[in-house]
Amino acid sequence: MTGLKVFEKEKRPLVLSFGCDGDVTWEIDIRKRMPNAEIHIFDPSGSSSWAPKVQKLLDTSNIRLHHMWVQRKPRRSPYPARTLPQILQMLGHEGRTIDMLKVDVENTEWPLFEAILTDCQVRFQHLNIELHGQYCEQHQRFFEALDACGYMITYREPNHWGCFGYRCIEYTIISRTHARAEFQ
């Protein structure tokens, strides 16, 4: 992963992961690289068959699994859901910059990021995201908002395993501030 040296030196980096569907490989790898990190996974489908096995694995890794979803704004949902600012407040990190953010929320990333990139209201240093869909206007607005908030793409890879092999693209995006600290 791009640019983790700075986080590996921090006392308690904050790592939030939205969407895992039972695969916590990324989060376990982050734990190994950053043993002091505070890591939270948010996935409402945790009541499914994978939850007990994953919870047992996470308990030994000191990673918290929250059975809730992140949304752009509070609304009716079949799952418990909160906005990202509400989640940060719930965790006691209101106003804090998120060190690492992973987002794979199956096409609901668009309204989420439309909300958090408006006025750059939630700050993060490092973002791993899978973008879904093939509508260029969404992608263009997303990247324009990222640029306006001081972020840049450092890695891009198509996900050939899902989305018909071409409708999902995985990105690593970092803040310019983090890039300067990481690559000095």
TrEMBL record:
Q: Which domain of life is it from?
A: Eukaryota
Report the InterPro entries cross-referenced here. Answer: Methyltranfer_dom (IPR025714), METTL24 (IPR026913)
Annotated Pfam families: Methyltransf_22
The UniProt record lists the Methyltransferase domain at: 7-173
Task: Extract the PANTHER family matched here.
Answer: METHYLTRANSFERASE-LIKE PROTEIN 24 (PTHR32026)
Protein name, per record: Methyltransferase domain-containing protein
The species is Eutreptiella gymnastica
